Amino acid sequence: MKEHSNKKVAAVTLGCKLNYAETSTILDQLSKKGWLLSSIGERADLIIIHTCAVTKQAEQKCRQKIRAIKRKNPSSKIAVIGCYSQFNPEALSAIDGIDAILGSNDKFDIKRYEDILLGTEPSPLVRVTPANTIEKVYPGYSLPAAASCERTRAFLKIQDGCDNGCSYCAIPLIRGGSRSLPAAHIVERAHLLASSGYREIVLTGVNTGDYRSGGLKLKELLRMLEEVSISRIRISSIEPDIVDRELIALVAGSKKIVPHFHIPLQSGSDRILRAMRRHYDTALYRDRVLMSVENIADCAIGADVMVGYPGETEEDFLKMYHFIEELPLASLHVFSCSIRPGTRLALQITNSERKPVESAEIARRYSELAELGRRHEARFKARYTGKECMVLIERSKPVEAGQPAYSGYTRNYLRVLVESNESQLQHTLPGNEVPVRIDSLDEDLNLKGRVLS
């Protein structure tokens, strides 16, 4: 019998899709060593909490989650891993009840978890390898479907780290420079995920579009993945300069790469984009968005935008507002600027080179952009009422009281609540892609439809 065959491990993941992929990798490795995969409510022997540190708000959420989990699971060992562990281990070490703090590199040391559980951990509580010394890129992929109930989308890591040097971003300080996994490894993992029952693969990374390995770039990798027997291939967040004519043509002509891009904007003011050290201007961004929607049928574009970057004036904000107003976006994620220690922006604040925007002004700008984003989303979704879409079912239980029992996503990533009668039950099981007629869009911007016979 394996040493840990009767031990249970559970995990909670906060943050991005990349974190989810890496958590699954760690759980997969533990499972292969005999650990039983569990949930938080099942009194796991070890609970792994995978953290995020992209903003101060993300860090606060991590601290709250750690304390809540420890309070409800006093007998469980707690390992806190990931970006917050790497970025500010001192803050985490002040929280009672944490048994180990593992950074971006050390979280993949499977023996470390075994030592924590056995009480034979020889090293200090905190283990953090400096980000600038991390050269290896560790894999990340979702577990096979049998070990992850009702999972139809798999996250597959292709790249880690970033070399862009944006003034506000701490990710290079946390995850190191850009590096990519070999294409052969990625394709092999994609075949495994497909044979495990997954219907969609989401390619993830810190800077996914910067994929390059053995002379291959993202477009070559996508062509290789099209040979995998998978229904859908989705690209996670990708920089605007990567969305060029060749990539757009590839997606437009593909039966597997879905018509959905998430392209971070960050600001609609060229002056602020230069201060952020972003590698494009609004003209390029507009060109790539328009080129995408004009050439890719049903293309949905999501965007990130930051408000309150230090030095952002009302004129900058209005330029951003009107720029976004004119774009054909399907969704908009708005967030406020967070000063991250160690970044170029933090140094500029310290040296009084940049002045923070007043919090009340940030709140107003945030509110106005969020409402603009809601109008974009409503306008885009309304186009689909009365139409037939292929929906990949992902849930087969009530979303909430009074709502249809099934939900899933269209190819361009619109969530649909699906009604189904008893005779169609087998068609609406998770993993099935079914034709759905979209009947309505409710006031909460939920699309609702019914399965077609």
Automatic annotation (TrEMBL):
Keywords, comma-separated and alphabetical: 4Fe-4S, Iron, Iron-sulfur, Metal-binding, Oxidoreductase, S-adenosyl-L-methionine, Transferase
Pfam families found in the cross-reference section: Radical_SAM, UPF0004
The Radical SAM core domain, residue ranges: 148-379
Cofactor(s) required, per the database record: [4Fe-4S] cluster
EC number(s) from the headed UniProt entry: 1.3.1.74
GO cellular component terms, A-Z: cytosol
Any one Gene Ontology molecular-function term assigned to this protein's record: tRNA-2-methylthio-N(6)-dimethylallyladenosine(37) synthase activity
InterPro entries attached to this UniProt entry: Elp3/MiaA/NifB-like_rSAM, Methylthiotransferase, Methylthiotransferase_CS, Methylthiotransferase_N, Methylthiotransferase_N_sf, MiaB-like_bact, rSAM, rSAM_horseshoe
Residue ranges occupied by any MTTase N-terminal domain in the UniProt entry: 7-122
CDD domains documented for this protein: Radical_SAM (cd01335)
The keyword Transcription is annotated on this UniProt entry: no
Name this polypeptide is given: MiaB-like tRNA modifying enzyme
Lineage, uppermost ranks: Bacteria, Pseudomonadati, Chlorobiota, Chlorobiia, Chlorobiales
